[in-house]
Amino acid sequence: MKTFIPKVDANAKKWYLVDAKGETLGRLATRIATVLRGKHRPTYTPYLDTGDFVVVINAEKITVSGQKMTGKVYYHHSMYPGGLKSVPLEKLSAKKPEEVIQKAVWGMLPKGPLGRDMFKKLKVYTGDKHPHQAQGPVALAK
């Protein structure tokens, strides 16, 4: 038997459209990360980028369960003494709702050059308009 190794072809990439309206953040992020990695395809290979493009609309209309809206906090550090910054999910979703989805998906992708290439295929927008009409995105099934 010979091992099948898929060839990464840019023309074989599909575009999927995801409406985040009323979706739970974590469940939505797992579906998106699965498509970005290519795990939904039979030709999935862990060390190759066989995933597809994902366009997310209505990013501001996601939901979270429990007390996460006030209790979940995002941290980052400026690398200076005393430079720890924290932003609760409530403020981040009010100011930059697309970043909430991006952070959730980024945590589910592999770290390194491969993960960064996968992450570039994620496009998140507030509202129901997006500039990717020409690619003809297909709605992603739940």
Please give the count of helices: 5
Give the mean pLDDT: 94
Q: What is the CATH C level class of the domain at 15-64 and 96-139, in words?
A: Alpha Beta
CATH superfamily of the domain at 15-64 and 96-139: Ribosomal protein L13
Head-to-tail CA distance between termini: 36 Å
Major β-sheet strand ordering: 5-2-1-6
Give the overall silhouette: globular
CATH architecture of the domain at 15-64 and 96-139: Alpha-Beta Complex
Radius of gyration: 17 Å
Percent helix, as a range, is: 25-40%
Structural class: alpha/beta
Characterize the largest beta sheet: strand count, sense, and whether it forms a barrel. 4 strands, parallel
Could you describe the 3D structure shown?
The chain has 142 residues and is an alpha/beta fold. 29% of the residues lie in helices and 18% in strands. The protein has a domain of 94 residues: Alpha-Beta Complex (Ribosomal Protein L13p, Chain: A), CATH 3.90.1180. It is built from 5 helices and 6 strands, in the order E-H-E-H-E-E-H-H-H-E-E. Helix 1 crosses helix 4 and helix 3 crosses helix 4. The longest helix has 13 residues. The mean pLDDT is 94.
